[in-house]
């Protein structure tokens, strides 16, 4: 994949069935995003939003059709490049019983503590960090739901991806955390391509295009302004 900048997305006639399952959960999915554009995915539960996001992240390959990111068919993309250029932020954040630093870098070489502090401050965790007994060396435990969400955003900023998949939290957090998350979403999407699984209508204010899924098919798709 291109090593820097936002990545375009092109899904062409993609269909998918989970292994050992005859029934297709996605079929005939076609959509495009220019680099930097944002797509909102909506549809009732079980309509296939998460599955489509998984194809974009190449957690699975389509059984028909193709998914191209940055002009490259994901089946031909270098796995290391996929890991560094694609990023997902979901509600289910995996944190480790390890230092704050390792939880951010995921045990990869660190860009330096100054950068890590800057990122944490940027997502609204500056005061939280300042209160930790050993700063970035503090072992993570007892992190609240809101804090883990914000840590997930910090991870994403550190990864600096060209395409972000965002599975928005469906349950509300306290207003202060909500504001910090909203702010982080805006900053993370700025200058990057985004696929947003939207659970709230208000989230659609930041997307350029919307795809409505129903039983694995797109029943409505277009620019937000035209729908
Ligand atoms: P929600 O809004 O509830 O997250 P969704 O629109 O994201 O729903 P998916 O999670 O993509 O929908 O599910 C689409 C279909 O695929 C559903 O019928 C679901 O039961 C099925 N499914 C999802 N994940 C798996 C899996 N890992 N293995 C088998 N079937 C799955």
Automatic annotation (TrEMBL):
Signal peptide: none annotated. It is found in: Cell membrane. It comes from Nonomuraea zeae. This is ABC transporter ATP-binding protein. Residues 9-227 form the ABC transporter domain. The chain holds residues 336 to 562 of 581 of the full protein.
């Amino acid at each position: 994949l291109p090593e820097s900048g936002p990545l375009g997305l092109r899904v062409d006639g993609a269909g998918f069935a989970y292994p050992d399952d005859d029934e297709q959960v996605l079929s005939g999915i076609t959509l495009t995003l220019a680099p930097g554009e944002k797509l909102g995915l909506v549809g009732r539960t079980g309509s296939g939003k998460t599955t489509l996001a998984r194809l974009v992240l190449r957690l699975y390959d389509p059984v028909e059709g193709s998914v191209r990111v940055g002009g490259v068919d994901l089946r031909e993309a270098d796995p290391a490049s996929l890991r560094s250029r694609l990023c997902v932020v979901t509600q289910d954040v995996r944190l480790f019983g390890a230092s704050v630093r390792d939880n951010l870098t995921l045990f990869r070489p660190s860009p330096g503590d100054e950068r890590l502090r800057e990122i944490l401050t940027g997502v609204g965790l500056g005061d939280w960090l300042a209160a930790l007994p050993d700063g970035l060396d503090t072992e993570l435990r007892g992190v609240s739901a809101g804090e883990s969400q914000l840590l997930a955003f910090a991870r994403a900023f550190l990864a600096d991806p060209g395409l972000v998949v965002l599975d928005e939290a469906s349950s509300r957090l306290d207003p202060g955390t909500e504001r910090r998350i909203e702010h982080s979403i805006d900053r993370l999407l700025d200058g990057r391509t985004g696929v947003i699984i939207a659970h709230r209508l208000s989230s659609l204010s930041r997307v350029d295009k919307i795809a409505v899924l129903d039983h694995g098919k797109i029943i409505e798709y277009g620019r937000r302004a035209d729908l």
